[in-house]
Amino acid sequence: MTTIYEELQEQANAELQKRHTHCVRVCMAAGCLSHHGDTIKKALEAEIEAQGCQDDVTIKGVGCMGLCAAGPLVSVEPEGILYEKVTVEDAADIVKSVGNKPLKRLQCATNVPFFKRQVKIVLENSGVVDPESLEDYILAGGYAALDKALTDMSPAEVIDEVVISGLRGRGGGGYPTGLKWSTVAKAISDTKYVICNADEGDPGAFMDRSVLESDPHRVIEGMAIAAYAVGAEQAYVYLRAEYPLAIQRLKMAIRQAKRSGLLGDNILGSGVNFNVDIRLGAGAFVCGEETALMASIEGKRGMPRPRPPYPADHGLWGEPTLINNVETFANVAPIIRNGGAWYAGIGTKESKGTKVFALAGQIKNTGLIEVPMGISLNEIVNEIGGGTPDGSQIKAIQTGGPSGGCIPNQYIETPVDYESLSELGSIMGSGGMIVMDSSSSMVEVARYFMEFCKTESCGKCIPCRVGTAQMYNLLDKIATGKATSADLELLEQLCDLVKNTSLCGLGQSAPNPVLSTLRYFREEYLTKIVDATDKQSGS
Q: Does residue 514 contact residue 491 with C-beta atoms inside 8 Å?
């Protein structure tokens, strides 16, 4: 008897038979769309008609290809040719080149470290599958892990594989995913929830957005496996309203999955029910904190609450709730498909697997990368990232967003894992990585992030509400050359107070950029300090 999943595979294979020898893939993620990627796709489609090669060439829109700095990107398969900075005017020449000599003037080298040094698990389908096609996802092995979990594994066996994998939460906290799942699974309740935290608010970060734009079914599949493992039937994706393309494609993927029996009642004929709904965030950074996020889903003001109780015991509407972020869920299907031991074989002893980073700032190859844990900052920034655009020396690397810190160039050989970054006063965070050169003022950097935290504070607790405002004022005085040594001393005292007395992670981590810049770039602060006696004498 043919199973529902086998029927879906047959439908996907029937779709595959309609495709042609050559496939021209056009990046349709937000970065390339901002440079008219959609217009380029239309021009290519018109050209295959004009040149009469409809029977030989397929034009396909795909997700992010990673090298955003070189967009718009177009690839020709199966030859593996990549074209960069493509324009509408190039469409005719690209179509003519298919099956012939590549266009040297547009060709992007694919044997460079940017591509060769990456290990793609989360991003294995990005730039390959059509994010708007369920058939394309299934042809790439999509939903095979869900079918395996529902057919061949008990919920406890699913959790065991996640535990064995060593996967830690990719939202920034690094909490063991398997432990979180097992806690929710053990909670006694008739109603449980799963939440995907897609409220990506760190400046310079675009990992979650790219995954949802490029491979939305992968996140849905990971959530469905998680729901089966913990005993939940309802899930929510809390997604930023500022990500319209991600919203559009996720909504489309949910509709496709429901029509195909992958969501709803009795998914894949297993007797398991599972539904996913979307809740849009209004841009409040604090709603990335899980208790504030749940309050927002419940229709309340997004403000954190004290913990315990933790969401695993008392979460959404008081029920046990599993919360993971986009990248964490995107790791689940390959773990179930290939086994937890396979995943644990990548990375370091304490930090398993890979991590997706968004490279931004003063770096040649801005874009999205996925690398094994334990790779050095130097390898990421100078080899994969290509160093600074003008070849100047890197001054600092900021990781972890407003909650992270600035790591000076002297520590550039540091391995990228949870423990090593923490020792330097920074954090992994969700994956934003901003590179700064000698033109950057570290006092200005600290002031920028403190202004961000001050603005985004929900105001519920006094240390964060008042402390971040006072810290910003002191940083502003220092940056404008009006501060005294007493102001600098007060700034350090406030950092300690806000860090240790704030209610939630926003306030607790807000001093990190200040503390890390003071730790490594103190002389930049001291050069701007004017002693009280000097000010009085007018010197």
A: yes
Alpha carbon 465 to its chain's center:
28
Specify whether the CB–CB gap between 340 and 354 falls below 8 A.
no
Cα distance between the two ends of the chain: 90
Strand order through the sheet with 405-408: 367-372, 354-361, 432-437, 394-399, 405-408
**Domains contained in the chain, CATH given:** 21-110 (3.40.30.10), 141-344 (3.40.50.11540), 354-434 (3.10.20.600), 442-535 (1.20.1440.230)
Q: For residue 114, how many other CB atoms are within 10 A of its CB?
A: 23
Tokens 């790439």 -> residue: 140
* Contact assessment for residue 533 and residue 427, using Cβ atoms and an 8 Å cutoff: no
Residue 313 DSSP label: T
Give Cα 60 to chain centroid, integer Å: 24
At 111, phi and psi to the nearest 5?
Answer: -105, 20
Tell me the CA distances in angstroms from 425 to 355, 420, 437, one per residue in order: 19, 9, 20
Phi then psi dihedrals of residue 444, to 5 deg: -65, -40
Instruction: Name which of 233, 239, 411, 224 is nearest 326 in CA terms.
Output: 239
Q: Round to whole Å and give the CA distance between 52 and 61.
A: 20
Q: Is the pTM of this model over 0.85?
A: yes
Q: What residue ranges in 148-303 does DSSP mark as E strands?
A: 193-198, 234-240, 275-281
- Token pair listed for 489: 């001393």
**Which token pair is 473?**
């004022």
Separation CA 82–CA 366 (nearest Å): 17
Q: Copy the structure tokens of residue 259.
A: 């029509």
* Rounded-to-integer distance, Cα 225 and Cα 435, Å: 37
DSSP state of 459: S
Helix (H, G, I), strand (E, B) or coil at 222: helix
Residue 516 CB burial class (10 angstroms; 0-12, 13-18, ≥19): buried
Question: pLDDT (tens digit, 0 to 9) for every residue of the chain, 539 residues total?
Answer: 689 999 999 999 988 777 878 999 999 999 999 999 999 999 999 999 999 998 899 999 999 999 999 999 999 999 999 999 999 999 999 999 999 999 999 999 999 999 999 999 999 999 999 999 999 999 999 999 999 999 999 999 999 999 999 999 998 778 999 999 999 999 999 999 999 999 998 888 899 999 999 999 999 999 999 999 999 999 999 999 999 999 999 999 999 999 999 999 999 999 999 999 999 998 889 999 999 999 999 999 999 999 899 999 999 999 999 999 999 999 999 999 999 999 999 999 999 999 999 999 999 999 999 999 999 999 999 999 999 999 999 999 999 888 889 999 999 999 999 999 999 999 888 889 999 999 999 999 999 999 999 999 999 999 999 999 999 999 999 999 999 999 999 999 999 999 999 999 899 999 999 999 999 999 999 999 987 445 444 44
- 520: helix, strand or coil: helix
